[in-house]
Automatic annotation (TrEMBL):
Comp. bias intervals (Low complexity): 126-138
GO cellular component: endoribonuclease complex; ribonucleoprotein complex
Keywords: Metal-binding, tRNA processing, Zinc
UniProt lineage: Eukaryota, Rhodophyta, Bangiophyceae, Cyanidiales, Cyanidiaceae
Transmembrane segments: none
Descriptive protein name: Uncharacterized protein
MF term (GO), any: metal ion binding
Length: 138
């Protein structure tokens, strides 16, 4: 009897967790959309929404999308980074430097990884078949 009750509780807990994570995802999406929309009108309000979004994500162990969210938000002041208005973007020696115009902080991202990925997917030339045991000369 006790074991059965425990399993029901565990089952319920699992469902709660799933529902909570789904709710959190919806809330994060809403906050991100709102932050981007509000950014044109009010910087502080937008930063507060981003702060809230990050807090929810951390609490529920939800990963924010790297390209869509993480690289478009200032780590220091939570401002939504828009090239030309709130951010200055420069490319220098294979690195992308994003400068926040609100607080003055900057971040560097490698530009090579993407180039390699793009080159690998588009300009892949089929090589002649070689035996797998043969090692390249050193
Ligand atoms: Zn900033």
């Amino acid at each position: 009897m006790a074991a059965r009750r425990q399993s029901r509780q565990a089952k319920r807990r699992g469902k709660d967790k799933l529902k909570r994570s789904r709710d959190a995802e919806a809330r994060i999406n809403f906050l991100w959309t709102a932050a981007r929309t509000v950014a044109d009108v009010s910087g502080p309000a937008s930063r507060h929404l981003v702060w809230l979004m990050k807090k929810i994500a951390v609490r529920l162990n939800h990963r924010l999308d790297r390209d869509a969210v993480k690289r478009r938000v200032c780590r220091r002041c939570n401002a939504v980074l828009r090239p030309g208005t709130t951010a200055t973007v420069r490319v220098r020696r294979g690195t992308i430097i994003v400068h926040c115009n609100v607080c003055g902080s900057f971040r560097r991202f490698p530009a090579q990884c993407r180039r390699r990925e793009a080159a690998g997917s588009t300009t892949e030339v089929p090589k002649p078949a070689a035996p797998s045991s043969a090692k390249p000369p050193r």
